[in-house]
């Protein structure tokens, strides 16, 4: 294991796991050389596969040790573990990344091993994901007039960097068949739906109908606020790409807000969508070395 991090910080009460920024300490740990050598001597070697395990349970003693023991006992090697313990909340969050030999640790056995740990700690959520072996997530992308977030997602998907299937793209702004995005979607047979919105009609019922067969939604600079009723009706994760560094500069025109406040750097934030605008748990952030004054 190359990195272990544990933090105690205030987090909003949510049922889903999210990665959040924090200060961390590094604890060097020697790789599992013994496990790796025993694996290679006992069975034919195959390519190592990358896995991710997300865990959410009541806080207690020995959780990290048990998760690590589970992976190590099967010859796996932990790459990193992110651990979160919110202040004044008796809950524990963890996200583990590891590599393993699928010949020694078959996928169905992995599910059963993590299920036993989940039961022993009365976990609220325990999800294991092996992108190379598991079916790809099905997503829908919602966008408005500006294309840059949508184009970046589409190109990432085309290059194989995003292990998802894009079921459809929905927008409240029209894109003709001869536009760059229109040609791309047509070439890859991705359905495109134009649903113009107004103050009195956000077309949410139609959107819910179109995205029923998806695992989560991505808002790629979708300039509409989704209602609590929509989020409840959809019932799955909705991820927003916000063109600013949350929790500061929420809402519209965050670049101008940052400029007016004297901020020298700009960035972007991906976060889970909740009823409160731009207040959902943060997944990832990136700072861009670009003059704020040139962003609007």
TrEMBL record:
Claim: Isomerase is one of the keywords in the record: no
Highest taxon of the lineage: Eukaryota
UniProt keyword annotations, A-Z: Hydrolase, One-carbon metabolism
UniProt cross-references to InterPro entries, sorted A to Z: ACT-like_dom_sf (IPR045865), ACT_dom (IPR002912), Formyl_transf_N (IPR002376), Formyl_transf_N_sf (IPR036477), PurU (IPR004810), PurU_ACT (IPR044074)
PROSITE patterns (UniProt xref): ACT
Record protein name field: ACT domain-containing protein
Pfam families: Formyl_trans_N
């Amino acid at each position: 294991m190359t990195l272990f991090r544990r933090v105690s910080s205030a987090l909003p009460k949510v049922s889903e796991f999210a990665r959040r920024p924090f200060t961390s300490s590094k604890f060097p740990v020697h790789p599992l050389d013994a496990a790796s050598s025993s694996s290679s001597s006992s069975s034919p070697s195959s390519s190592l596969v990358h896995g991710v395990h997300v865990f959410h349970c009541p806080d207690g003693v020995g959780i990290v040790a048990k998760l690590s023991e589970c992976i190590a006992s099967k010859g796996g090697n932990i790459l990193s573990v992110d651990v979160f313990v919110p202040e004044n909340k008796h809950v524990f969050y963890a996200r583990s990344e590891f590599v393993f030999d699928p010949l020694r640790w078959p996928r169905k056995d992995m599910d059963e091993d993590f299920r036993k740990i989940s039961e022993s700690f009365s976990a609220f959520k325990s999800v294991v994901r092996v992108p190379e072996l598991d079916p790809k997530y099905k997503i829908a992308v919602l966008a408005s007039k500006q294309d840059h977030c949508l184009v970046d997602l589409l190109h990432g998907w085309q290059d194989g960097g995003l292990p998802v299937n894009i079921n459809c793209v929905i927008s409240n702004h029209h894109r003709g068949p001869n536009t760059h995005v229109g040609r791309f979607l047509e070439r890859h047979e991705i359905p495109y739906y134009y649903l113009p919105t107004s103050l009195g009609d956000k077309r949410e019922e139609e959107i819910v109908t179109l995205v029923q067969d998806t695992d989560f939604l991505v808002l790629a600079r979708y300039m509409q606020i989704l209602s609590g009723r929509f989020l409840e009706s959809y019932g799955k994760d909705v991820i927003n790409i916000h063109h600013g560094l949350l929790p500061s500069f929420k809402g519209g025109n965050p670049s101008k807000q940052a400029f007016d406040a004297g901020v020298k750097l700009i960035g972007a934030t991906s976060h889970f969508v909740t009823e409160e605008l731009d207040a959902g748990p943060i997944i990832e952030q990136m700072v861009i070395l670009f003059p704020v004054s040139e962003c609007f």
